[in-house]
Task: inverse folding
């Protein structure tokens, strides 16, 4: 698609209504508009316009079997898009919407099959970001929006990340500054008997269990029958930086020592090494001009670790490192579960267990 991508800078807390109205007009006409949400930037398209949805899959290079999240302005919009609204959905919406939580529900015939990749279910979210809210309200249509990255690249947390991947392929990017959460929304499946988190995010399992005590993470579920996979897109290789990433799991002290040893060995082989670290990690043993360290924040500040992760991966790609080393964090609960989930996906199997 030969398009000139326009950049529109808007104030994240008080977006200019004229700018929002113009962006909404592009969406209503079937165009592709990237916009900030509180999680990551989304690439929006008219969710009920099957041709526009097809153009979105092309622009992203996304496989057609990976379903999209539909963004709406209010819980009431669910009635038209779904065939049944379970009590669990009402409970979660009253506690967590607007916010970084996506619910999988039974899809109504209004939702084109292109959006749901042929599934009988549809994923829906009410985002909290003022620009996203203003845009959806002004357009007065449901907006399908995957993360605004090329397929297999880390999700964008800044407008310039969107342009790195999609400049010339989409109509407009609304630049509202960096996103606050930095990881994609929690996805929870409410179509079965037990609410099941398919993708961990900032609305954590612990938070959900406060209102739905039997909720669980998908890994804890009994194994699915063959062919019964709920969400095909979740298994594809997502969130991948260009350089291979190796994830070190274990206690901080031993993990950091092992990363230093491995970084030194790689540098001795003539490789350029990137490390994603917490502020306090002592990597001085590997200091070298071929070592590039990105600090996410103090280990205890999990929100900062999450908010800075994808920018760190993109920054390391831009420095042309040959490999990236990253570690897990000691906290195994809350938002750290989502950070570890994304790091494991980025590692695509390259995981080093460092014994205690
Ligand atoms: O935070 C977010 O969720 C961002 C912002 C833009 O809202 N969006 C986002 O979309 O991350 P995307 O397309 O990158 O990820 C959507 C995820 C995929 O893993 C997909 O498989 C899953 O949601 N999903 C979508 N529809 C589904 C469905 N009907 N059943 C199960 N999983 C579904
Ligand atoms: Mg994505």
Result:
């Amino acid at each position: 698609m030969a398009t000139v991508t326009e950049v529109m800078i808007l104030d994240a807390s008080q977006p200019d209504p004229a700018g929002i109205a113009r962006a909404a007009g592009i969406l209503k006409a079937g165009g592709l508009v990237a916009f900030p949400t509180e999680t990551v930037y989304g690439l929006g398209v008219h969710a009920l316009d099957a041709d526009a949805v097809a153009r979105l899959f092309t622009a992203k290079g996304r496989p057609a079997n990976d379903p999209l999240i539909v963004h709406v302005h209010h819980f009431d919009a669910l009635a038209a898009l779904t065939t049944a609204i379970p009590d669990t959905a009402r409970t979660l919406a009253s506690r967590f919407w607007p916010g970084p939580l996506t619910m999988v529900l039974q899809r109504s015939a209004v939702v084109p099959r292109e959006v749901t990749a042929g599934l009988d279910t549809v994923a829906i979210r009410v985002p909290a970001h003022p620009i996203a809210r203003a845009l959806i309200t002004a357009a007065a249509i449901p907006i399908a929006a995957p993360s605004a990255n090329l397929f297999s690249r880390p999700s964008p947390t800044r407008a310039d990340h969107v342009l790195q991947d999609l400049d010339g392929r989409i109509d407009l990017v609304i630049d509202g500054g960096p996103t606050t959460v930095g990881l994609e929304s929690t996805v929870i499946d409410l179509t079965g008997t037990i609410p099941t988190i398919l993708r961990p995010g900032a609305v954590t399992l612990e938070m959900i269990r406060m209102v739905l005590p039997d909720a669980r993470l998908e890994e804890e579920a009994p194994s699915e029958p063959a062919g019964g996979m709920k969400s095909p897109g979740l298994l594809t290789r997502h969130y991948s930086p260009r350089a291979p990433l190796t994830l070190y799991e274990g206690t901080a002290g031993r993990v950091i020592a092992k990363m230093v040893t491995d970084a030194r060995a790689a540098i001795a082989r003539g490789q350029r090494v990137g490390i994603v670290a917490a502020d306090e990690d002592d990597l001085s043993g590997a200091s070298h001009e071929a070592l590039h360290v990105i600090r996410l924040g103090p280990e205890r500040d999990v929100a900062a670790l999450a908010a800075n992760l994808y920018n760190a991966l993109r920054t390391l790609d831009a420095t042309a490192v040959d490999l990236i080393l990253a570690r897990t964090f000691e906290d195994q609960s809350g938002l750290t579960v989502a950070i570890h989930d994304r790091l494991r996906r980025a590692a695509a199997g390259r995981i080093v267990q460092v014994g205690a």
Summary: The chain has a mean pLDDT of 93. The chain has eleven helices and 16 strands. Residues 146-147, 155 surround magnesium ion (ligand 2) (CB under 6 Å).
